[in-house]
Design goal:
Blueprint (H helix, E strand, L loop, with lengths): L1 H8 L5 H16 L7 E6 L2 H19 L2 E6 L5 H9 L6 E5 H9 L8 H4 L9 H4 L10 E12 L14 H4 L9 E4 L5 H8 L7 H7 L3 H14 L5 E4 L4 H8 L4 E5 H10 L5 E16 L6 H11 L2 H7 L6 E2 L2 H9 L25 E3 L2 H21 L1
Parallel strand pairs: 1-2, 1-3, 5-6, 5-7, 8-10
Antiparallel strand pairs: 3-8, 4-7, 4-8, 4-9
Length: about 375
């Protein structure tokens, strides 16, 4: 309509005006089409990725116009290595275990951060480095959540029982609680809970693993006994959605898992399972920025938003993992009930809650980064023997 009006007003103005109009139209129709860009984020899928997408991915995309593409994986650095070696990197941001941020940084697979420059301060001006819950395991890691490796059980599996499982030792007690268990496919977290179940104090686990002859074998032996027990037995899980599914279907009576996935099954889906916090392994999860990724500027902008006070508080509205920023906890506390249903308080559901940390193991990322190859070989040999 504007072009037609322009022609009518200027139809007697001669060739100059016609030339100007033609030039303007050519500029409009043949100007390069500019997009806001995109960023490829790799995470663990299921309820966890959904919490990330809804909590900060979608708000970031709406605010900036940068498209956030979510990609599911099962952890580790193997795909990042493969892409890097091939010179064809498609990942920008990867959600990683602490040990993998150490290894990835050492191998040059991840970008180092300047934390107070790259990440925003808290609302009260506290620098990011002081607002994060704990120091980072490497210069290539920025904190995301705190979560728990704990276990859950199906109460319907023990009709008439005098009591229900309540300790980490109960996970291995097939006489009192018979039935198959599900355990994580890799050694990490399994060795720790086995030793506590066998009487080692939570604070002494890594002393036994690192310095006592036969400490690792002792831990693996707990699972050998459990998995070969006619009253027990084991299957292995690798995806976070599997433990609640195994429990709900009756395929197992107990399963280790991630507390946020159990929470989602119980509160979000109404599944009849119960969590046990005794002997939990409290762990941190991080984002890494892939070196040589296709969208470095967009990825850094996204990371700054994802790990901001508001971003991390936003993800906690959808899953019971504690945000890595202290100021995010303040937002949640001031606005409870924070869960998306509008009636469930989130702070008591988190692995950092006082009732959930009476007997916990703090994951030692350096131990796993230094020993992962040897421990993996021993663990896989155990699995192959079953």
């Amino acid at each position: 309509m504007l072009i037609v009006k322009y022609l009518l007003i200027n139809k007697h103005n001669g060739g100059l005006m016609k030339k100007m109009l033609i030039t303007a139209l050519v500029s409009v129709f043949f100007a390069p089409f500019v997009t806001a860009g995109e960023v490829n984020v790799v995470s663990w899928g299921g309820a966890y990725t959904e919490s990330q997408k809804l909590g900060y991915g979608d708000p970031f995309q709406e605010k900036t116009g940068i498209q956030v593409n979510w990609i599911d994986y099962s952890g580790g650095l193997s795909e990042v290595r493969t892409q890097s070696e091939a010179g064809n990197i498609t990942y920008d941001i990867v959600d990683l275990f602490a040990r993998d941020t150490i290894i990835g940084c050492d191998e040059g697979l991840l970008v180092e951060f300047d934390f107070d420059k790259d990440f925003p301060a808290a609302p009260d001006g506290t620098p990011a480095s002081e607002d994060f819950f704990a120091p980072m395991p490497s210069d290539c890691a920025v904190g995301n959540i705190l979560y728990s490796w704990n276990y859950a059980y199906n109460p319907n599996a023990f009709p008439g029982a005098d009591s229900m499982p309540s300790t980490i030792a109960d996970f291995f007690d097939t006489e009192k609680f018979p039935g198959k268990r599900s355990i994580y496919t890799s050694a990490m977290s399994n060795l720790e809970i086995a030793l506590v179940a066998d009487g080692v104090s939570a604070g002494g686990v890594y002393e036994v693993l690192e310095n006592q002859t036969g400490g690792v074998e002792r831990a693996i032996g707990m699972f050998e006994d459990l998995c070969n027990d006619p009253n027990g037995g084991c299957i292995f899980w690798s995806a976070g959605a599997q433990p609640p599914e195994f429990l709900a279907s009756g395929e197992v009576v107990m399963s280790t898992g991630w507390n946020g996935r159990f929470f989602n099954a119980i509160v979000g889906e109404g599944t009849t399972i119960k969590q046990v916090w005794d002997g939990q392994v409290l762990d941190y999860e991080y984002f890494g920025l892939v070196a040589g990724g296709p969208n470095p500027e967009e990825a850094m902008e996204a990371l700054a938003y994802f790990t901001s006070t508001e971003g991390l508080a936003g993800s906690a509205k959808y899953i019971a993992y504690a945000p890595f920023r202290i100021s995010s906890l303040d937002i949640i506390a001031a606005n409870e009930p924070w869960y998306k249903d509008g009636s469930t308080e989130m702070l008591p559901q988190m692995p950092t809650a006082p009732d959930n940390t009476k007997n916990y193991i703090l994951m030692n990322a350096e131990y796993w980064a230094d020993n992962s190859t040897e421990l993996s070989e021993m663990w896989e040999a155990f699995k192959a023997s079953l």
